[in-house]
Write a structure and sequence with these properties.
- The complex is a heterodimer of chains A (477) and B (446).
- Chain A is built from 11 helices and 23 strands.
- By secondary structure, chain A is of the alpha+beta class.
- Chain A has 2 domains: 3-233, 2-Layer Sandwich (PmbA/TldD fold); 240-473, no CATH class.
- In chain A, a hairpin with an 8-residue loop joins strand 11 and strand 12.
- Chain A is globular.
- Chain A starts with 6 loop residues before the first helix and ends with a strand.
- Chain B has 2 domains: 3-218, PmbA/TldD superfamily (PmbA/TldD fold, 2-Layer Sandwich); 223-446, no CATH class.
- In chain B, strands 1, 2, 3, 4, 5, 6 and 7 form a 7-stranded antiparallel beta sheet that branches.
- Chain B starts with a helix and ends with a strand.
- Classes of the chains: A alpha+beta (477), B alpha+beta (446).
- Strand 3 (73-79) of chain A pairs parallel with strand 2 of chain B, so a sheet runs across the interface.
């Protein structure tokens, strides 16, 4: 696409000459590299509670971020005003980290190859508000109809459309139009006026409203939230201590995100502060484990046609048959480590400096029948759903919080358990994987990853997994 | 009126002229500066300003919200129209509306220090360099660093509504942090220390920030994993603060009216031991949780939430107060878009008589928690489970570091089992707690 046909040219009159000028300002005090990230983000959100559509909000944020890299230094400034004077001022502020004569900006831009992972028949904001409101009304009705013990339902729908333009001093010019939509449902249930329990479900991705009409309906998410709340009504104390843990397929893949994903982001390894630093080629998991980070899966929440530095995303093998293969690279770290970018440079918005981040992180399917995995456990727990997780990169300790789990006794799931946190150590935990299911599943599309205060959408997935040893943080000691 | 106050009041007027029965507009205008240094070199420097406006309109009992960063006349008009359009599709909510009365706390809250705006860039860089250098010089085992940073923020908050309220206030803040890595015999541990304040004079010295961070990382080296057991748990202020955050969620009107808190219906009841008194006060000068009015234009105040173990008040905004048949406590909190939620002023646990050292000395065997990782409480049930690291207490003394463990219990029991609150209350953020001692929790190890 020529620049003249782009959103920012038609809406704000941006020309190649403008881009050249801004980049020249950015490199006016020297530096190795500069880039511009233009963003226009429109959002819409609706929330229903007590069967009343209580709130609706829409809005627009826009701006441009200017970055200058000089050796290991990064200068950054941004403007929420796209007038040339304001952008040039931001460029000169970002330039302050460099000292020296101006560097040359390549003349002429080229558009690099990129994917087409989320073609849109109609953009999210082309659907009517009434159509969107209908989705959460359906969710509300379905959750209430699921079980008479359901007494509170919150259903929300949010969508956004982000226009992005990236121009670099090396002559790369890249565009993208990124949709995102999500439904979430929270349900409270109680039995005969007893203490309530909560269930939560949601999903979506780089999709538009049609996804919720044709593929995953509001009823699907609503019933799942209600089911979880009702299951918790009968839950007992979770056990405490080391035991065998079986993770169900899909969202429990948050294990990979915390245990290995963050530790393999190149910035932490370049600085030697990750527990995985210097371990490429070493065994860090059982030979049954192959872990991939893949930004190229169609319509997935963690997918992007290009990363936020204009590089096409790709399928990156992190761990192959238990051996550590590679890191997730962005511009800066790949330059300094003399490696190649892996399409992993991401940022939350034009106000933020990009960093190496995950996209969709999952483990390849193995050969075991999931039922056989559970049958093989005399005593342990089975975790079907999780809340969030967190990792300490340096020590490698990570946690993730089970929200739906069951006791396994004699190879059978016997009773539901209350929420409990699981804790392990990144470079060690996956060595205890003794069975991998043939049922790889990706999550429903709700993941948000937070790093140094920046939030980006991600996906995870695993097949059913058996870990022979992990510490479970219940109360029943 | 200031320029921004005029824009906010103008947006409210435009909404009324366009058919809204009530409206409120929030504007936030801010400038940020952040420098990161690592291994004695500057790593990144960021400096910029941005602003945004949000409006919420009511058409009778229906509401709609919108926001923009475009402050031109057209931009504001588009924002108002977008909100009105949404108010056509939302449903009648009998409890929606503006507060009964607006106002402001009239004392000097010392939220803005002009010295923050005048800080030279070079000085800010030197502070971060000095903090990291102090950490690296503390001990030869501090051999690496995740860096050190200096940040400053200047902001203006403006609020106007159709009850005729127009107000604004300016804030400043600055912060210095260091994150060293200590390593020995194949064990690597990081920790951090930070100091932040509304005024430059309130900052701790870079030397102290770096030294404290290094001491914290060093004492974690070569941790052990302990056996699963039930034992006393002492939360240092940094982790006690996280625990208090869970209590905040449980007393927030948003959780209460939904029956999504284990404290629903417990007003006037004894829910904790006598050692626990919790206050919310947005009128304490110079603190991060202070403001003259909340995000609905209601005057800030002091609320006793828990008094010697008895639940005295929930924290409410106008909507949650109406849902519960109560009065707002001035705790409305909102960003640009959507409805006001409930947020803390300075939400803190009153200090007790004993020093942390005295508290630890009284513990025969237990865990001193210096870091919580992931997990937390289920506000609905009170169930609590979190990853933890810290030091094991043996016969009243900190004996050795532990990690890779979890602590679990239920907040209902944990609050009743709170033995002591320490004397070391410091307001480092809007939620603040002293050292806390809980009689017994489940610690999960090997």
């Amino acid at each position: 696409m020529p620049l003249s046909e782009s959103f920012f040219a038609s809406r704000f009159g941006l020309t190649e000459r403008d881009l050249q000028n801004y980049l020249s300002d950015a490199l006016s005090a020297g530096g190795d590299y500069a880039d511009l990230y233009f963003e226009y983000l429109s959002t819409c959100s609706l929330r229903m509670e007590e069967s009343i559509l209580k709130s609706a909000a829409q809005g627009v944020t826009l701006g441009v971020g200017v970055r200058v890299i000089a050796g290991e230094r990064t200068g950054y400034a941004y403007s929420d005003d796209l007038s040339p004077e304001k952008i040039r001022k931001a460029a000169r502020v970002a330039a302050c980290i460099a000292r020296g004569p101006a560097s040359i900006v390549t003349t002429g831009f080229e558009e690099p190859p990129r994917h087409n992972l989320y073609p849109m028949l109609r953009a999210p904001n082309e659907a009517s508000l009434a159509e969107r409101a209908d989705l959460i009304q359906r969710a509300d009705r379905a959750a209430r109809a699921y079980d008479s013990r359901v007494f509170q339902v919150q259903a929300a729908y949010a969508d956004s459309l982000r226009h992005v333009l990236i121009a670099t001093s090396e002559g790369r010019l890249a565009f993208d139009r990124q949709p995102m939509a999500r439904i979430s449902v929270t349900v409270l249930a109680r039995h005969n006026g007893g203490p309530p329990q909560q269930g939560h479900s949601g999903g979506g991705g780089r999709v538009t409203l049609d996804y919720f009409l044709n593929e995953k309906t509001p009823e699907y998410f609503a019933r799942e939230a209600a089911r979880q709340a009702v299951v918790q009504l009968g839950a007992g104390e979770a056990p405490a201590g080391e035991m065998t843990v079986v993770l169900g397929p899909g969202w429990p893949g948050i294990l990979l995100h915390e245990a290995v994903g963050h530790g393999l982001e190149a910035d932490f390894n370049r600085k030697g502060v990750s527990a995985f630093a210097g371990r490429i080629g070493q065994r860090v998991a059982s030979p049954l484990c192959t872990v991939i980070d893949d930004g190229t899966l169609g319509s997935r929440r963690g997918s992007i046609n290009m990363d936020d530095e204009g590089i096409a995303t790709q399928r990156n093998v992190l761990i192959e048959n238990g051996v550590l293969r590679g890191y997730l690279q962005d511009q800066l770290s790949s330059r300094l480590m003399r490696s190649t970018p892996t399409g992993s440079g991401r940022r939350e918005s034009y106000q933020q400096i990009p960093m190496p981040r995950m996209t969709n992180t999952y483990m390849l399917a193995g050969e075991s029948d999931p039922e056989e995995i559970i049958r093989s456990v005399p005593k342990g727990i089975y975790c079907a759903n999780f809340g969030g997780g967190q990792v300490d990169i340096t020590s490698g300790n990570f946690v993730f919080a089970a929200s739906e789990s069951y006791l396994i006794e004699g190879g059978r799931l016997t009773r539901p358990l209350r929420g409990a946190t699981l804790i392990g150590n990144g470079p060690e935990a996956l060595k205890y994987v003794s069975m991998v299911g043939n049922d790889l599943k990706l999550d429903e599309g709700v993941g948000i990853c937070s790093k140094e205060g920046q939030h980006v959408p991600v996906g995870v997935g695993i097949p059913t997994l058996k870990l022979d040893r992990m510490t479970v943080g219940g109360t029943a000691a | 009126m200031t320029e921004l106050e005029k824009i906010a009041a103008g947006a409210v007027d435009l909404a009324l002229q366009s058919g809204a029965t009530a409206a409120e507009c929030t504007i936030s205008d801010g400038a940020e500066f952040e420098v990161n240094v690592r291994m004695r070199e500057m790593e990144s420097l960021k400096e910029a300003a941005s602003r945004g406006a949000g409006i919420r309109v009511l058409a009778g009992r229906r509401s709609g919200s919108s926001y923009t960063s475009d402050f031109s006349k057209d931009g504001i008009a588009r924002m108002v129209q977008a909100a009105l359009e949404l108010a056509k599709i939302t449903a009648e909510d009998p409890h929606a509306g503006l507060p009964e009365a607006c106002g402001r706390f009239e004392g000097d809250l010392a939220l803005y220090d002009p010295a923050v705006a005048a800080l030279p860039t070079q000085w800010k860089i030197e502070q971060a360099v000095a903090a990291e250098a102090s950490a690296l010089a503390a001990d030869p085992r501090v051999s690496n660093s995740k860096g050190a940073s200096f940040e400053s923020h200047l902001g203006t908050r403006v609020f106007a509504n159709s009850l005729g309220f127009v107000g604004s206030y300016c804030t400043s803040s600055c912060g210095l942090a260091a994150q060293p890595v200590a390593a020995q015999n194949g064990s690597a541990e990081r920790d951090y220390w930070y100091s932040s304040a509304r005024a430059v004079a309130g900052l701790e010295s870079p030397e102290r920030v770096g030294r404290k961070a290094a001491e914290r990382a060093l004492r974690r080296l070569n941790p052990r994993k302990i056996a699963t057991q039930r034992a006393a748990v002492v939360f240092e202020p940094r982790t006690a603060r996280a625990l208090l955050g869970e209590i905040f969620d449980a007393v927030s009107g948003s959780s209460i009216y939904r029956h999504a808190s284990f404290l629903t219906g417990m007003l006037g009841e004894k829910i904790a031991s006598e050692a626990l008194t919790v206050i919310d006060d947005a009128t304490l000068p110079g603190l991060f949780g202070s403001s003259p009015f909340d995000d609905e234009g209601v005057a800030s105040r002091r609320t006793v939430v828990i008094e010697r173990g008895v639940l005295r008040s929930y924290l409410l905004n106008t909507y949650t107060a109406r849902k519960l048949g109560m009065k707002t406590t001035g705790n409305a909190s909102r960003g640009f878009s959507g409805d006001a939620g409930v947020g803390p002023g300075n939400f803190y646990i009153e200090a007790g008589p004993q020093t942390p050292e005295q508290m630890i000395a009284g513990v025969k065997a237990g865990l001193y928690v210096t870091e919580l990782i992931g997990g937390g409480a289920n506000t609905v049930t009170g169930d609590y489970s979190a990853g933890a690291a810290g030091l094991w207490i043996e016969s009243g003394e900190l004996a050795y570091p532990v990690s890779g463990i979890t602590i679990a219990g239920n907040l209902k029991q944990m609050l009743m089992d709170l033995r002591q609150a320490g004397s070391d209350l410091e307001f480092r953020s809007s939620i603040a707690a002293p050292t806390l001692l809980i009689g017994e929790m489940t610690i999960s190890g090997h």
